[in-house]
Amino acid sequence: MPDSSSSRRGSRLTVDDWLNAAMQVLISDGVGAIKISRLCERLGVTKGSFYWHFTDISALMTALSDHCRAVEETARQMLADLEKLPPIERIQTMGQLVSDTRRRSVEAAVRAWAETDPTLEASVVALDHTVFEVARTAFVELGFSDVDAHARATALVYVGIGYMQGGERVEAPTEDDKRIFVEMLTRR
Fold first, then answer.
1. What is d(CA 136, CA 152) in angstroms, rounded to the nearest whole number?
2. Which residue, 103, 143, 157, 175, shows the most beta carbons closer than 10 Å to its own?
3. 179's torsion region: left (phi>0), alpha (psi -120 to 50) or beta?
4. Region of residue 69 (left: phi > 0; alpha: psi -120 to 50; beta: else)
5. Residues 6+ positions from 94 with CB-CB distance below 8 Å
6. Could you write out the DSSP letters of every residue in 148-169?
7. pLDDT by residue (tens digit) across 52-73?
8. Is the dihedral of CA 113, 118, 123, 126 positive or negative?
9. Closest CA to 50 of 84, 21, 10
10. CA torsion, points 109, 2, 77, 86, in degrees to nearest 10?
């Protein structure tokens, strides 16, 4: 995501501008790197602009945590909406969602932060449970026993988490990789 400082100079920043800048830092360098001075530099403004919107860094972090929980809830709703698709399409779509580069970056950053933020961790856990349940239901609808559906859903969840955590260290799956993985999971 490009630095927005050049486009924002001379105009008033919004809370969303600050949250977007904080999110960019969270994604690139982690939660510990989010500092008022760094955000001001990124946005090309003084600390006075920061204090116009937030009382302190803690207030920003609370707003950012709320924002991340909303992102997780949106993802949960998107997954729930997949229930309308046929089971194999549901599984394929889940694979497409997890392999989206931007989504992967955001999700990996949120998961890392969730290690130290219990409310954010609860949102991540809820998302994982939704992913699992949507997948398990799809496998049951494909005629797999509860035990087999559970195992396949577990594999899908852990492959997705592993891919997100692998980040740039692991080559992105090709379309053939995704197709073969779905075939392996749905094969009897």
1. 7
2. 157
3. alpha
4. alpha
5. 79, 82, 131, 134, 135, 156, 160
6. HHHHHHHHHHHHHHHHHHHGGG
7. 999 999 999 999 999 999 988 9
8. positive
9. 21
10. -100
State the burial class of residue 183 (Cβ atoms within 10 Å of its Cβ: 0-12, 13-18, 19+): exposed
Q: Is the dihedral of CA 170, 175, 178, 181 positive or negative?
A: negative
Residue 83 · residue 90 · CB < 8 Å: yes
State pLDDT tens for residues 24-51.
999 999 999 999 999 999 999 999 999 9
* Residue 103 identity: R
Q: Which of 94, 106, 120 is nearest to 164 (CA)?
A: 106
Q: Are 43 and 5 in contact (CB under 8 A)?
A: yes
What are the residue ranges in the chain where pLDDT is below 50?
1-10
Residue among 128, 185, 115, 186 at smallest CA distance from 158: 128
pLDDT at 187: 92
Q: Is this structure's pTM higher than 0.85?
A: no
Residue 5's pLDDT is 42
